Automatic annotation (TrEMBL):
Top-tier EC class: ligase
Lineage: Bacteria, Pseudomonadati, Pseudomonadota, Alphaproteobacteria, Rhodobacterales
Gene Ontology terms for molecular function: ATP binding; phosphoribosylformylglycinamidine synthase activity
Xref: PANTHER family: PHOSPHORIBOSYLFORMYLGLYCINAMIDINE SYNTHASE SUBUNIT PURS
CC terms in the record's Gene Ontology section: cytoplasm
The protein's role, per its UniProt record: Part of the phosphoribosylformylglycinamidine synthase complex involved in the purines biosynthetic pathway. Catalyzes the ATP-dependent conversion of formylglycinamide ribonucleotide (FGAR) and glutamine to yield formylglycinamidine ribonucleotide (FGAM) and glutamate. The FGAM synthase complex is composed of three subunits. PurQ produces an ammonia molecule by converting glutamine to glutamate. PurL transfers the ammonia molecule to FGAR to form FGAM in an ATP-dependent manner.
UniProt-listed Enzyme Commission number(s): 6.3.5.3
Organism, as annotated: Celeribacter baekdonensis B30
Annotated protein name in UniProt: Phosphoribosylformylglycinamidine synthase subunit PurS
GO biological process, one term: 'de novo' IMP biosynthetic process
Pathway membership, UniProt: Purine metabolism; IMP biosynthesis via de novo pathway; 5-amino-1-(5-phospho-D-ribosyl)imidazole from N(2)-formyl-N(1)-(5-phospho-D-ribosyl)glycinamide: step 1/2
Alphabetized UniProt keyword annotations: ATP-binding, Cytoplasm, Ligase, Nucleotide-binding, Purine biosynthesis
Length: 76
């Protein structure tokens, strides 16, 4: 069983990496990019039967900083 965790900064939290990417895209001539938010994707290869509650606990305790980040779990 596999799970994908998409982690993003919460709305309102400054994203300096996203701002740097947005600036670089503009410098390369790409127009019309109003905002960039950069996040991370974590893929887990799990034992069959691992509960979604257990995956949520992994996210809450280690994989995401829930003070400034939100996450979405997708079972693959």
């Amino acid at each position: 069983m596999k799970a994908r965790i998409d982690v993003m900064l919460k709305t309102g939290v400054l994203d300096p990496q996203g701002a740097a990417v947005q600036h670089a895209l503009g410098a390369l001539g790409f127009e019309g990019v109003n905002e960039v938010r950069q996040g991370k994707v974590i893929e887990l290869d799990l034992a069959d039967g691992t509960s979604e509650e257990s995956i949520k606990e992994m996210c809450d305790k280690l994989l995401a900083n829930t003070v400034i980040e939100s996450y979405r779990i997708t079972l693959l």
